[in-house]
Every structure is written in structure tokens, then in C-alpha cells.
Design brief:
The protein is an alpha+beta fold. Helix content is 18%, strand content 48%. The protein has 2 helices and 12 strands, in the order H-E-E-E-E-E-H-E-E-E-E-E-E-E. An 8-stranded antiparallel barrel has the order 1-4-5-6-7-8-9-12. The protein has a two-stranded antiparallel sheet with strand order 10-11. A hairpin with a 4-residue loop joins strand 8 and strand 9. The protein is elongated, with a radius of gyration of 23 Å. The chain starts with a helix and ends with a strand.
């Protein structure tokens, strides 16, 4: 009986050790990407009279993105976040710039955040360009929304990652009213095309 108890204890200890090691292995990032200087985000939209582009350029925070391979056949978990000051949006037109910042409630909610959630697969080093889907959570004007994003990714031999993410969103997704001028004679369409360009260095 005592021998059985000892064997049982050993089996429990081995089993727990295996579970802990498996958990740690699952939580170890497959890849780490460190953001380099020069990232940008742009939004493109239309009014009933013209088109416009507003951009935040020169994003320089040394953020890191972590890519995890947790379950075979499942999307790769992606962890990391960009926080971009809304006040840095520049539409190349002072009136339009002020209108966009006001519409996005820059004084109350100063940051637009993009939290990375997943990639459908790991990009291949050395490939010229790959189209990969992923998911992000965008926080804007006090609201959070999740979107599927289309990425174009390339990784050079020096392990420099060029990433372009693109997605159409609506002002009304965040309970915002598209800006208008001259008593409604100039109206901004609800839909915006959001693009963010990042250059990262792969460190493993």
C-alpha cells in the first residue's frame, strides 16, 4: 500500500511538471518584433466635394510585438499596442485638421490605440510580399471595436519587417458623427480607409 502511495505521488509530481512546462512553452513567444522609428497612420475619406488624407507620421515609441503559436491550426496570437496622439493628425489643411481632431474628441480622449490580437499565419522570411489577415482592437473616442485587418508583410534577410495594415471603418462605429461645414453643404462620408505602416526589427 505504501509503495502504491509513493508511486502515485511521483506520478502526480511528474504530471504537474509536464503541465507547467507545456504552459510555459505555449507562452513563449515564437517571434519578437521591435518597432523602429518612422511608423505612420493615415485615414483617407471623402466629402461630397473632394477627397482628403489625414496622417500621423514619425511614430517613434519603442514598442514590441510578440507572436505566439499556441494551438496548431489556430491563428497565431499577437500581443502589442500602438498609442497614437490624436492631436498629431495633420490633414494639410488647418480647418480640416481642427475639424477632425474635434470630431475624434481629442481633448477628452487624446489617444487612438491599436491593440494587436492575432495573425492568420507566420510570414515567411525572405518573401517579397505576403498578404495575411489578422485581428486588431481599435480604441477611439472612448469606444472599442474589433476588426479583421488585411496585412501586406515582407521580411528582408536582415530580419527587417515591413508591415502595412489596412481596414475600412466608419465614424458611426465609434458613435461619432461625420463632420460637416457650411450648414451641411459640405458633408463628410461615414466611411474612412485606415492604413498603418510599421517597420520592425525581428530579434529572434
Amino acid at each position: 500500500m505504501l509503495r502504491f502511495i509513493e508511486i502515485f505521488k511521483i506520478a502526480v509530481v511528474v504530471g504537474l511538471a509536464f503541465i507547467i512546462c507545456s504552459y510555459r512553452s505555449a507562452e513563449t513567444p515564437s517571434l519578437r518584433w521591435v518597432l523602429l522609428k518612422g511608423g505612420s497612420l493615415s485615414v483617407k475619406g471623402k466629402t461630397n466635394v473632394n477627397e482628403f488624407t489625414c496622417s500621423i507620421t514619425g511614430y517613434a515609441n519603442a514598442d514590441t510585438l510578440f507572436l505566439y503559436n499556441r494551438n496548431t491550426g489556430q491563428p497565431f496570437a499577437l500581443q502589442g499596442q500602438l498609442d497614437l496622439p490624436v492631436k498629431l493628425f495633420n490633414c494639410k489643411n488647418p480647418i480640416m485638421t481642427a475639424d477632425l481632431r474635434k470630431t475624434l474628441k481629442a481633448k477628452t480622449y487624446p489617444d487612438l490605440s491599436i491593440r494587436f490580437l492575432s495573425l492568420s499565419r507566420v510570414p515567411i522570411a525572405g518573401a517579397q510580399q505576403e498578404n495575411i489577415k489578422g485581428n486588431v482592437e481599435i480604441s477611439l473616442a472612448g469606444k472599442k471595436r474589433r476588426y479583421e485587418v488585411n496585412y501586406t508583410i515582407s521580411i528582408s534577410g536582415a530580419k527587417i519587417v515591413n508591415l502595412l495594415g489596412e481596414r475600412n471603418i466608419n465614424f458611426t462605429d465609434f458613435d461619432l458623427e461625420p463632420p460637416s461645414k457650411l450648414g451641411g453643404m459640405i458633408k463628410t462620408e461615414n466611411q474612412l480607409n485606415v492604413q498603418f505602416r510599421l517597420t520592425l526589427s525581428q530579434i529572434n
